């Protein structure tokens, strides 16, 4: 929280001259009072003792005496001591602090000690109502003077003081003081308001003398006023003009996840988080307001503590493991995160210009807190299982099905087409789905943190370790060690602030080399070993999927990630209201991968043997980024107008390097983990790419009467990804808000409405998410040689004319608060349009190439409605019940696409249809004559053809999604229940199990419930078949028809108990005895229950290893 | 005092603005990223002699080593379309039955391959003149590229008829180029070859860089395809009368070996993993290339070509003949047995001249040329006295028997250029043959991407 932003000193030179130098010194130290409690604590620690024997001495004399004894100097104004009562005191060898307390208690003065300096100030009383004003007899009018403070008696600068009936108003200065001169005599109501604090209302009577009041404002607990990190600064929901939302550490910590992105699922409107699969470290996608990119990734811009963070996995496609695209966020410790802010609309993101087109995710890590040094240890452990494991035929059912299928086909089983019936033990049974993905994964997590410091320097050091097993078989794990250090330092005069963070993570994932998902198909009586004790391989079999399901176990994949992020922000207050700031950051992520494929993993049957004995691939990828962002920010209040202006620049450079090598024919599997033992090099590659980016940005915010807000941003970006002459692009936005609840008619006639805001924004953001160097015509070296010579060949054709794509975003929203903001509702509508997307545009190959980079003329539109609500249903001393709800109705559409029919997307997209469009055949029914599934021949030409007979089946994007959460607190007990829901259609089991029942692979039980037979002609499912090659037979439909039809597309909606967290904080009385500040025990569960009608695995990950159901218990101790 | 404050603020703002302005001015330089380490910018390729040579080498590597069509598949695909081979599985049925659809992936791959080589060649032809190499090297590099460009256009037009004639790398031109009349394409091919023939050196190495004979031999073929009989005869004669030691190999088993004296152009198999012998029989019929009975029964008794160049096998109870011109499926133990893929050989030149002579009513000369080939095959020579049409049929037959499985199916191209496809293939494949199948379909993908292209009927 940038407290100092709000209360930075604000005064002019002229004012200083008028008040004299005493005040200058004092002003410098005003900020030192901000954390008065801490200061008192430190004052007590002063080891100086004094002995005073004074009789009727003046205060100044007393101070001189103390200064003589201790060397401490005193700072005060003459006014303070002018009418101080004389002092008579006898003190023997007491501490300086005690002496001063004794001396000053009756003087109306307070003190603090700072660097051998005793600073005095007037004592202020923490009262919420003005004291009864003195009633002077003079009736010529007078002056109102006062001071505005917060609950800690620190001054609030910039509070509005208003006497409505006189139409007079003013603002408090840096010391919280204000003056309203020349008030006519009378009785007035004074209103004092300040952002984030409750309003103060008091009555004064002016009779000619000056009236003094002190107003202590209480901080409001309204969520509207919580400080949130936004682009290049902080803001509150009350005054923003843009669409942004955030999740705080407490909501992340209660979820047992290892990837912070996973903690966002269902929590925010417009933010769709999807897991790729349930294997540790696997990819996770986050889309802000949908993916409206035709061919590029539509990743948002991620910024961790001001440093851009890679959105895409570093995994080299040449070295891929079962974890797939290892998420880069797997190496960010969720426990180190203070908040994650999501910026959505143009107003919030346009200042990121070209990179903000897909939204922005700002991750802010934790900082130390001043005060007592605390040690915090949080440890938990638990376990995970897959949410769903498919139900396949057991051996008895399988064998029976196979026999019936052979009979139906009229084929005689032989040892070459029916090993499962004739060669193998027909009673042996392995439940392969359970063996492969039905395991229990352990989960343990330990976090330790030290935090402390004083108001000048604060420090946080945290260490974390987690170890997670896997639900897939094999000795798989994800072990992650992380360290995080933050130092936040202010100079004595508070003008200089240096904040620096260093984070390092080491993540070690051991997984299988390939996703064993396919192995679940294996016939349930598949033999493990042959007679020699080696893995069994089916001799000579042309049918698919005959790998020994245990062979996957021997194929190992490893991903090691080192992730280092550091940043430093230096801010200097040049003048009151004018801050100069430089943010510098550096990050480096280094990924090392291994794929180990020992000889024992390969089919030993000669005619199926691989052309190599064994192989191992090694890959190294790294990305390093530095960024420098100088900024100048100016804040000024002029009457009812607040101005905030920001100007800055960005210089960024990223270097991405990739190397990989694959060796084959190692003499022994024992030496397979080093390339030096390889018999020969099978494949190799390396690349190095530099990305440079530079921009200038500016933002101007105007707020008038706390009612009308206008926010404009402009950014000019240059990116090395574009050709000369096309490198720079302009992006801008304008946003406005009208807080109509500030109007008197609302206040008077609709007091139930405590907050009402209309906001709208429009702007242009862009994207440069394309590969580097696409504007260049390049040649590459040929891997092959001819006559011993390898040459250069044309690698890439140039299209120097492509340029920035621009997304035009418009948003209208209303935020409402009822019953003193205990009920907050928000509704927004937006439309994003993009009509010159950067794609790998296809070329006719007569040009020599298939693609080049170009701006595509298709118009793509996303519109959506988003609603969210928060209520504080119960807010009592011991009881608190909060509810949150959010729902998003996204809608994407391809509005126009000139030449779609002649584009390679002709069969992928359709005008007026959603972008993520399922297309395929239309399934009719089972032919009652022969049990063959029937599909509709759209063009009635007698044959099925993907070009002519596909129909638009429907969208693969959700119809709506959201979350519903409740937090109930009773004394130390807190219960969190969070439900996440998605209404969507998706690909079902027909897309995963594309072999017919009766084929030599296992199938889900529902495939054999009601199969066609000559006596069951009204069946809902096809006849059994052992073959897929007869295009007129029933089996053919499974791989070639069902898979591509609307039968494979069905409801994949679900709601799930995403998070359940129960924690108990021991009462202070108890913990105090144990010398423990805070002790909490908890139970946390993730994905504990899923409700769905989906026919398949998990409706979220669909046809992949399902997401995990995790239950953990833990304890947190703070010393 | 107020003025002072304002002034101070203004000065500060100005300073800030200046800093920002300075940043902007250096922006342009800043956003120039280092070039990729694994790619070379086009302009740098042709600004150094070493890189220019590497680009020319790259043309050979790219065209001759990366391309499965040129090394293997080409002979088979069109051979299925013609009456040479059938395949053990249904994979190439659309070729075998002449029912190719515009969406056929192999047809598309063929199209793509030739045009990607043409791009390489055009890049060299365009940019070599500006490169820092000697004038003689410029001429040589250009000539080599022109032969490749001609070679690819020749096959494109043979398979597809009218095809875009691409002679530039400018994507704004090439992306929308329409089909060019076949005659124009052939004329451009002949022009490229004629220009290259003058420049290319004489040479005796057949499996290395291009030499003059490769241009001459190809030119003879182009003239034949154009119906320019006199020119075809002249070029074939030049070729046959060469003084570089290119002569018919008397031992048929040595025609396809490395350094075969009959070879005009061979592709070095040194590091190519021997893809040439892929059609040798395996354990499964599935991947088997089988010679059609019409072809193996077409040989006269005692024809040495049948015994030398065809093998027979029985796999899964099926007896068949298979192409056995290349005998190695993997690198042979003996250096003497190394085979290099033959792109052009002298026997074809005799047959070109025979046809050209027959067309010019020089029937005796034609029969003389045919008999050179027949004598080597160990069969009886033809006697003088045949009619022109009989001689032309004899040429057709001899080309079929001599050149089967070579030159990306001479047979397919011959049947179509002589308008014999309807008669021959119509009889062989009565259910599926249509006269429109003489041309492969222009790939649908290409028509979609370039609306200027029209489909084949």
Automatic annotation (TrEMBL), chain B:
Gene3D superfamilies per record: 1.25.40.390
Location in or out of the cell: Cell outer membrane
Record InterPro entries: SusD-like_N (IPR033985), SusD_RagB_dom (IPR012944), TPR-like_helical_dom_sf (IPR011990)
The SusD-like N-terminal domain, residue ranges: 76-224
GO CC terms, sorted: cell outer membrane
Annotated RagB/SusD domain residues: 306-457
The keyword Signal is assigned to this record: yes
Keywords: Cell outer membrane, Membrane, Signal
Pfam families in UniProt: SusD-like_3 (PF14322), SusD_RagB (PF07980)
Main subcellular localisation: membrane
Matches recorded under SUPFAM superfamilies: TPR-like (SSF48452)
Similarity section: Belongs to the SusD family.
Full protein name: Carbohydrate-binding protein SusD
Native organism: Niastella vici
